[in-house]
Amino acid sequence: MNIVETENKYTSGVYAKQALTIVRGKGASLFDVDGNEYLDCSSGHGVANLGHAHPKIAEALYKQASTLITLFESFPNDQRAALMEKICALVPGLDRVFFCNSGTEAVEASFKFARISTGRKNIVAAMRAFHGRTYGSLSATFNKKYREGFEPLVPGFCHVAYNNIEALDKAVTDETAAVILEVIQGEGGVYPANAEYIQFARRICDERGALLIVDEIQSGFGRTGKIFAIEHYGITPDLLTCAKSLAGGVPMGAVLIGRNVKNLTPGVHGTTFGGNPLVCAAAIAALNVIEEEDLPGQAAAKGKYLMEKLQEINSPNIREVRGLGLMVGIEIKQKVAPYIKALQENRVIAINAGLTVIRLLPPLVITYEQIDHLVEVLAEVLAADYEADKRM
Ligand SMILES: Cc1ncc(COP(=O)(O)O)c(C=O)c1O
Questions:
Q1: Do the Cβ atoms of 88 and 259 come closer than 8 Å?
Q2: Best of 146, 191, 244 to mutate for ligand 1, by most ligand atoms within 8 A of CB?
Q3: 1, exposed or middle or buried, with CB in 10 Å at 0-12, 13-18, 19+?
């Protein structure tokens, strides 16, 4: 079978397909069908924080799959109870949890919880924000590229400039159910928030009776050098959404819930697969690995090393390098698409964030040698000027 042709024949069409078939992964490496090794600096859009094919995840999955795979959350289960206790110990003040299966589902749940809790309808989100592609999340997502063609979206949503205290002050009223923010915008271009802005958001929500939702779907589980990026800012939201690497690569989402969230009674929300024993076992194993291997510490140290090395690249093409831990954006003066392609030709897999930012989200277990190699390849690739022809 020709794998590329087969996928191209049967795909829904909603993904821009690469002509690169990946069949295996190990740590920060991916291998194509011919055994060629690629350095993965995307982690499947920020999922593989633990590295690919971590043996502890494989072991937990095998063991639990031979014991019990599925069980609706109405019935208590040993794996789910253990995970609940573990995940609710991560952020003091967030001591309840709702499990689901993806990032967008966690965001959807947080909006429903905010509306049912406050009895209000309005949600304030940020410009450049990305929160997912189902209707509620899409209504909070800013970029019209994701929204166009799908209107009408959910009413009650508005967007205000990110990192702008006055704009937020004006937008939050006594009809606001929630403010939703990423503390470091990922898809929107890798923009960390200012501490004063996030702290203001916390204060204004308290004063006006709105809930603060922080979306840590991309920034969570060690990625920025802390378990959650909120730890850099010293605030606790009312609702925290997470997913991606929560279960070591197996699909899972969660909403951590604070004490201000009310009215979560039986039937208000639910999902068939949420909190099934298989994925809970994987998540317990993932959280153990994050702790045992000090992945947040690794991300902090390696992120600093990577940033310093990137600052040394002497390319007139680089506008800015920014980020937190191993969530890094390189903003360049040209469109990134040809650079991402050139990186891939040099066996480095990276992703974009918007039109002009190369986004690096490597597994947190990437080695220092791999970081050196990444920087070498980046320096080489960024030396090219793909828009020179157009200027002539
Ligand atoms: C900040 C943020 N929120 C929500 C989502 C949506 O998650 P999912 O693709 O699992 O639905 C993403 C995905 O990239 C994200 O980065």
A1: no
A2: 244
A3: exposed
Asked if the model's pLDDT at residue 294 lies above 80, the reply is yes
216 CA distance to ligand 1 middle (Å): 9
Residue nearest to atom 10 of ligand 1 (CA): 103
Residue 121 in contact with ligand 1 by CB distance below 6 A: no
| Mean pLDDT over each residue of the chain, to the nearest integer | 97
244 is catalytic: yes
Active site residue 215: yes
For residue range 95-127, list pLDDT tens digits in order: 999 999 999 999 999 999 999 999 999 999 999
Identity of the residue numbered 335: K
Position 388 scores a pLDDT of 80
Residues 6+ apart with CB under 8 A from 34: none
Residue among 127, 92, 98 nearest 110 (CA): 98
Spatial contact of 147 and 182, defined as CB atoms under 8 Å apart: no
Which ligand 1 atom is the nearest neighbour of the CA of 182? 1
Rounded distance between C-alpha atoms, residue 186 and residue 312, angstroms = 23
In angstroms, rounded to a whole number, what is the distance separating the alpha carbons of residues 142 and 133?
Answer: 11
Own/partner long-range contacts of 374-377 (Cβ < 8 Å, ≥24 apart): 374/39, 374/41, 374/306, 374/348, 375/306, 375/309, 375/310, 375/312, 375/313, 377/39, 377/343, 377/346, 377/347, 377/348
**What are the distances in angstroms from CA 106 to CA 170, 212, 226, 388?**
27, 14, 21, 44
Give the global pTM.
0.98
56 flagged as catalytic: no
Check pocket membership of 131 for ligand 1, CB cut-off 6 A. yes
Q: How many whole angstroms separate alpha carbon 191 and alpha carbon 257?
A: 25
